[in-house]
Amino acid sequence: MVSEVEKKFEFKNKGEYLVSNKLFLDLIFNNKCNCDCRFCIAKTKSYANSNLDRWKESFKKTIDIFKDEIDSLIILGGEATVDPDFFLKLDYMDSVTKNNHIFTILTTNGCLLRNETFLNKVASSTVDSVNISIMNHNLEHNKYLMRGNVLNRDELKKIYEVFHNNGKTVRLNTNVAKNNLCTLEEIEEYINYFKGCCDVIKFTPLMKTDMFNTEDDILTYTHEYAMSKEEIKKLFDSLVYKYGSKNSNSKVFGLINYGELFVNGQHVILKYEQVEDMYDLNRVIPTLKLYPNGNLSNEWDYNKNILDKFI
Predict the structure, then answer these.
(1) Which of 14, 136, 155, 196 is the most buried (most CB within 10 A)?
(2) What domains can you pick out in the chain, each with its CATH number?
(3) How large is the average pLDDT for residues 130-147?
(4) Backbone phi, then psi, for 278, in 5-degree steps?
């Protein structure tokens, strides 16, 4: 499988937009969550109301319109697994794409995967890969950051084994911030602690955010604890210098800088930065987001719907 770092992106005309030939479609299943992460930009002042019928209709139209461009489906929340329509949506996605399956990724905190029945059902679903958010290798610090009944290492390993036995891959996602994994030693400890519990570990800098509608305490938190680009580069470069880089891509989508390496046999991805000079989203679409209300947007705004512009 081609890694994130190795993917090549081009843009082509589609209606009034330039659309990436490797389009990621974010499927935002719901807004609720069973954790209360201190840094979560999905916590907003108001939410899109759920409308399953309209969501299904919009999903099918989106696949019909962008079937040649969509590279991956990314299931998001809130926490997608607490959506009461979670498996209904998975089944519907499978029915729409069954003749031309699209690689599907579930992003989750993993809490509900403790349930063996739930876990096995996800493992046998249309999901190809699972991204599990675990912020820190110290369980108590992880609980502090995520404020929920987070997974411990033994639980994660069992979950990984089930997915692995069903041909699925597992990636751990974590943030690097002033209060989390901000030294080379801490990053190495995280990698070594979770080695054997996942296929890939991805380190992403906590970003100062001024996202659409995000709660004020989240904005304050990210501005307080986000490291500078220079600090992140120095930290990640020290890891690459010590272990050697496997691959790098200076600008995926023209927006994101990645590094890729192996640390003691563990596959690691470093997301160096999100470049701030964003595309003009009134003209260029690198990603799409389908909200619970059925609106398709090219930005973090559930009130915006661009689907009719392609019909």
Answers:
(1) 136
(2) 11-35+45-310 (3.20.20.70)
(3) 98
(4) -70, 160
